[in-house]
Write a structure and sequence with these properties.
Length: 384
């Protein structure tokens, strides 16, 4: 990311007093500058129990079927693009607040002391056009395909003639997971044993093998006899689903009991769980493990939090806007990262805003109500 921030000259930049986090659409003026260049819009998002949608042009909360740019559901912020919506809204990180993340870890002494006033200069800075705009995309509980598979390009194939051919996707060795079933009451150790997808053949995924040691409902340990998920006889190279409780391939569309899906669509290949945006089940998967680490888990550890669910994510998922539990406090602290939001990534003339999340609680201390503030900006072209 080449986005940089330069502080505006001190001359003419008056102190801006911000309203407390809460309320709707508060305009904050800088008396020494043109109002259009120094007005924040602000909106509290009542997202504690439902998803709410915000139009940054109007500053109004709208229905999902209306024109919106950002949605909120408690801590989760999404853009109206890609897997999250039908729009073309894009985002980019403008100010990373790296000084508050020494060694990549949040500074518990500084982040809790950040305030809207102390961090407002980042919204008013002169920012460069980012190298690219990020739209929301599918985020698997298993991680991206590079977590469990490898792609061989032309250069790699030329450097290793005895290895996979160019355009081949194969399993990454020694990758495994703990997996929770769609019913949420059975579990499995899953190994990615084999995966073969010759992308240039135009026929989709050719072969795969996933191995499962199952802990059935009511049992207290994983079975010592593995079962396997392989392509069914009529497999067309796209989606295939497996129910590890019944040791059966099931229909991805009509079945509610599938636990793991292997698939390929467009230019993406993936593993999915029956959870979140992928299904109505209570499935999920742990972070990636080696096979040796997986063998040490003799049963489900009984910690639901280890199971990630399928979701959508983009710039807000890659660069979280908050920290939790700093200074021994069980609360959310905004880190005041500054984001660029573009109304339509396909339109060079569409509006761009700088945006910060400045709070998570309303005036009464109720959580799940993030407050956003934003400002339309003109971006500088990055130097050649």
């Amino acid at each position: 990311m080449r986005s940089t921030i330069l502080k505006l000259p001190a001359v003419g930049l008056a102190v801006v007093t911000l309203a407390a986090c809460g309320g709707s659409d508060n305009a904050i003026e800088d008396s020494d500058q043109d109002l259009s260049a120094s007005q924040f819009s602000q909106q509290l998002m009542p997202a504690a129990t439902e998803t709410v949608y915000l139009n940054l042009e109007t500053g109004e909360l709208v229905d999902e079927t209306d024109e919106w740019h950002i949605s909120a559901n408690r801590l989760s912020l999404k853009l109206n693009s890609g897997e999250s919506g039908s729009g073309n809204v894009g985002g980019a990180l403008a100010v990373a607040q790296d000084e508050h993340y020494p060694g990549g870890e949040p500074n518990a002494n500084t982040i809790p002391n950040l305030t809207p006033n102390s961090e407002q200069e980042h919204l008013l800075g002169i920012l460069e056009e980012p190298e690219s705009w990020q739209e929301d995309a599918f985020v698997s509980a298993f991680g991206g395909p590079d977590t469990w598979s490898t792609y061989t390009d032309d250069r790699t194939a030329a450097e290793n003639p005895s290895g996979p051919a160019a355009g081949e996707v194969n399993e990454k060795p020694d990758v495994g997971y703990l997996v929770r079933s769609a019913e949420g009451d059975s579990y499995a150790r899953m190994r990615v044993a084999d995966f073969y997808f010759p992308t240039r053949a135009g026929l989709g995924i050719s072969d795969f093998t996933l191995e499962f040691d199952v802990q059935a409902q009511g049992q207290d340990s994983f079975s010592e006899t593995a079962i396997t998920f392989k392509p069914p006889v009529d497999y067309d190279g796209g989606d295939a689903c497996f129910d590890f409780d019944s040791d059966a391939v099931v229909d991805c569309v009509t079945s509610d009991s599938w636990d793991v899906q292997v698939g390929f669509s467009g230019r993406s290949w993936y593993l999915k769980t029956n959870s979140g945006v992928s299904g109505d089940g209570n499935g999920g998967a742990s972070d990636v493990m080696t096979w040796a680490e997986l063998d040490e888990e003799v049963s489900d550890p009984g910690v639901p939090q280890i199971y990630n669910t399928d979701a959508t994510g983009g710039v807000f998922a890659d660069h979280t806007w908050y920290e939790y539990g700093l200074a021994n406090g069980h609360r959310i602290w905004p880190n005041f990262r500054t984001f660029l939001i573009k109304a339509d990534v396909n339109d060079d003339e569409s509006t761009v805003w700088t945006l910060q999340v400045i709070g998570y609680y309303d005036d009464s201390g109720t959580s799940g109500k993030p407050t956003l503030r934003w400002l339309p900006v003109e971006l500088q072209q990055a130097p050649e």
